Amino acid sequence: GGLTKEFLDSRCSALDDMHQAVSAWMSGEHDHIDKKKKKNEPLARVMDADGPMWTRIFSEPDRREPTDSVGPEVCSLLDDTLRSLPVQGVRRMVVGHTPQRAGISEDCGDAWGAAGSVFKVDVGMSAGVFGAEPQVLEILVSGAVRVLTAGESHTLPDRQEL
Question: How far apart are CA 63 and CA 54, in angstroms?
Fold first, then answer.
C-alpha cells in the first residue's frame, strides 16, 4: 500500500474523505463497495489496484537493482508524493501488503539521494505467507527508528536524525 502523487492529484479530492470512508469500513459501518458508484466512492478509490490499499510501487523491488530496493525512479516518486501532501515536512511513508522476506526494512533515503524514506513493514506473519515472527516498527519522538521483535530491538542504521 501507500499513497502516490498521481493518486492524490487525480483520484481523491480530499484525504479527509478517504480517512472517513476507511474508518467507517474498519468499524463495520460500511461493509461493501457499491459497484454502481465505484468511481465516486472514496472507499472504492482506496481499494482500487493503484489505490493506497493495494499499490505495490513502494514495496516491490526493481528487478534491475542487485538488492531488494525499489530503485531511484520510485524513490524520486516517493519524494514527489511526500512533497505533495497537505502537511509540510513529511519525510517517511510506511507501507504494507507486500511481504518482505527479510523483515521490516527501509528503502530510498540516503541510499538513493532521496529526501524521504519508505518503511516496508509487512513481514508475512500469516502461516499462508511466510509464517514469520511478528515485528513492529517504532518511530521515537527523538527521530530514532527501531524494529522490535520478540525480546529484541535494533535501531535502523543512520536514521537517528529523521
Answer: 20
Are the beta carbons of 65 and 71 closer than 8 angstroms? Answer: yes
pLDDT in tens, 66-88: 677 888 899 999 999 999 888 88
Q: Name all contacts of 84-89 with Cβ < 8 Å and 24+ positions apart.
A: 84/5, 84/8, 84/9, 85/3, 85/8, 86/15
- What DSSP string describes 29-45? S--S--GGGGGG-HHHH
CB 122 within 8 A of CB 104: no
- To which H or E segment does residue 149 belong? strand 145-149
Q: What is the pLDDT of residue 36?
A: 57
Q: Give the C-alpha distances (Å, rounded to integers) separating 62 from 10, 69, 154, 160.
A: 25, 6, 26, 27
> Among 138, 137, 104, which Cα is nearest to 123's?
104
